[in-house]
Amino acid sequence: MKPVPESIAAFLRGRRFAVAGVSRSGRQPSNAIFTRLRDCGYEVFAVNPAASEVAGEPCYPNLRSVPAALDGVVIATPPAASADVVRQCAELGVTRVWFHRSIGDGSVSPEAIDACRTHQIAPIVGGCPMMYCGRVDVFHKCMRWWFSRNGRIPG
Fold this sequence. Notes:
Elements lengths: L5 H7 L3 E5 L8 H11 L3 E5 L5 E2 L2 E4 L11 E4 L3 H14 L3 E4 L10 H9 L3 E4 L12 H12 L6
Parallel strand pairs: 1-2, 1-5, 2-4, 5-6, 6-7
Antiparallel strand pairs: 3-4
C-alpha cells in the first residue's frame, strides 16, 4: 500500500480533534470515527447541536462550545451544514479539516470547499481517518486502496 499522503499525516499529527456530525443513535460513520480517534489516544470532542452526550462523552452543539483549542476537525455532517462548520473552524483558527466521504458526496459541498479556500484552511476531501488510524480493518484497507486509486482521497 502507498505511504500515507503528507496532508493526512499532518492532520493525524494533531492531538485534539472534533468530529462534527456525530449521531445520537451511534449508527453513523461519524460515531465510528469519533471512537477510533479516541481509542488511538487522541483527545476527541463530539459535535451535534441535537445531542448532549455521545458514546458516554459530552457532546457540544458547535465548535465554538468545545472547551479546548482544536488541531483539526473531521466534518461528517450533511453537505448543507459543512460550510458553516468550515466558517466556525476559521473563527477558531483551525486550519485543518477532513471531509468524510465514501460513496457519493459525503459531507462535501462546493460552498464548503470555497470557504476553505477563502479562509486558508487545508481540506482533506474524501475517505476518513479510519483508513489510516490505528489498526486498520480489512474493509477500510480496501476502501483506502480503491479510493486512492480512483482519486477519491489524496495520494
